[in-house]
Amino acid sequence: MKVRLKGTMKLGRSTYRFKSNVAISDCFTVVGKKEGQGPLSIYFDMVIEDEYAGQKSWELAEGKLLNIAITKLVQRAGEKPDNIDLILSGDLLNQLSSSHFAARDLDIPFIGIYGACSTFALSVGLASLFVDSGFAKNVIAATSSHFCSAEKQFRYPLELGTQRPPTSQWTVTGAAAFLIKQEDSSQSPKITHFTVGRILDFGIKDPNNMGAAMAPAAFDTIMRHFSDTKRSFDYYDMIITGDLGYVGRKLLDELFKKEGIRFSSELFDCGILMFDPETQNTGAGASGCAASACVFGGYLYKLLRERTFEKILIVPTGALMSQSTALLGESIPVIAHALAIEIV
Amino acid sequence: MNIKDKKVCEYLALVKANEPKTNSFKNCILAFLIGGAICDVGQAFLNLYSSFFPKDEAQVLTSITMIFLGAFLTGVGVYDKIGAFAGAGSIVPITGFANSIVSPAIEYKKEGFVFGVGSKMFLIAGPVLVYGISTSILVGLLYYLVKVFPGI
């Protein structure tokens, strides 16, 4: 057996290798009604049909979903809230409103992070750094998004009668929380590598075409992950991107084809897995922080535990626009972070 | 052109080639049919009111009725579904204007009656009002000048 030493090691320009057994010990996913009717419905831990979740505004409703995900996770893991060293959380709203609402009753040290739809990888990756370095024992990484609060902030009022362009994506209503800690048993999937992305901008200005904006970021981060780790393209059982949707996934395929790169496994995308576009009218697929977080937490995490897959690379992407950057006519800066999650 | 610009241009071309197409023909037909149907409803009200009121009053009453219907259907959550289906067909008639004012009013009611409903109600309709009224002043001025100086 290999002796594992504590401490993170940096590989290449941007990949961090975790030397201790940093595991996703448990996770909890909460989704809304539409997600609960989708193809992955049976995998989520909880479906809340009321889009207000008993609250009086969309922002509070999103905060409530996140709060439920975190408190239920702590309960199920059998931990006392006092034993949780840190929460790392983020969402799409201005000033991370829903994360802050979710955490204000929890009394746990908190760091808010913003990575748009890439927040899932960012929070889990940073949590792993805290755990691997030994500064924290139990860290919760969490994220949320809500269709209604995102529409209100980024697009139009819900009741406005507009047509959605075919490239537009449907923000997932949901929240997911992950408990990151050191664990020696091989039961829990381990986070072995975290590749930090860089900001790219390929000149896409249309905020209704985020898939096209984000595809180059996914490509760049995947390529850098492989060059940093010197792993072969066949190493992973599954490579899964965050929320590129149908449009972005096709473009990512084209980008790999242009470089002549072939993977032994098919590329998957959380934004495609979440909804059924035929019956659910979701356009180019799902988006939002909860898209990759809930598809991973609900579905892929269980597949990893059942050992259907043993090595996956998940690459959530984020389109970092705001209402004002779109109006200023600026193109959309994008980012992608990658997490290698393996059974070891 | 440097390498970065070249890469951006190449990528934008790739995006254009892979873009899902909007079915403009189908959208035009639907907009024509639904928009026409909304206008038919308006015409029916105009015919009805014309038998009781003089022409100009009947026209005002028709507009009021259509605005009420647009606002009502927005309030009960139906107009956005018509809009997703009809596109410009439900935006162009006066009911669409009612929808564009009532939908932000509903959305921002939670932010209070002054800074929520009061100021954000014109979020979508505001530009239409500003440029609509400005244009009508310009056209009115032109009309006046032509009337005063028929020679030009």
Describe the structure in your own words.
The complex is a heterodimer of chains A (344) and B (152). Chain A is an alpha/beta fold. Chain A has 2 domains: 8-182, Peroxisomal Thiolase, Chain A, domain 1, CATH 3.40.47.40; 190-342, Peroxisomal Thiolase, Chain A, domain 1 (3-Layer(aba) Sandwich). In chain A, 34% of the residues lie in helices and 22% in strands. Chain A contains 11 helices and 17 strands. Chain A has helices at residues 33-36, 58-76, 97-103, 119-132, 147-154, 210-229, 245-259, 270-273, 277-280, 289-305, 323-327, and strands spanning 8-11, 15-18, 22-31, 46-47, 86-90, 110-112, 139-145, 170-171, 174-182, 190-195, 238-241, 267-269, 286-287, 311-315, 317-319, 334-336, 338-342. Chain A has a 7-stranded mixed sheet with strand order 1-2-10-17-14-11-12, with helices on both faces. The longest helix of chain A has 20 residues, at 210-229. Mean pLDDT of chain A is 93; it is low at 1-5. Chain B is mainly α and 152 residues long. Chain B has 2 domains: 21-121, no CATH class; 125-152. Helices cover 80% and strands 0% of the residues of chain B. Chain B has 8 helices and no strands. Chain B has helices spanning 3-18, 24-50, 55-75, 79-86, 88-91, 94-107, 113-120, 125-148. In chain B, helix 2 (24-50) crosses helix 3 (55-75), helix 3 packs parallel to helix 6 (94-107) and helix 6 (94-107) runs antiparallel to helix 7. Chain B is extended and about 70 Å long. The N and C termini of chain B lie far apart (52 Å). Chain A binds chain B through residues 56-57, 152, 156-167, 202-204, 209, 212, 216, 246-247, 250-251, 254-255, 284, and chain B through 7-8, 11-12, 14-15, 18-22, 27, 74-75, 77, 79-84, 86-87, 90-91, 96, 99-100, 102-104, 106-108, 110, 123-124. Chain B: InterPro entries: Spore_V_AC, SpoVA. Chain B: The chain crosses the membrane at residues 29-48, 60-79, 85-102, 122-146. Chain B: It comes from Caldicellulosiruptor owensensis. Chain B: This is Stage V sporulation protein AC. Chain B: Keywords: Membrane, Transmembrane, Transmembrane helix.
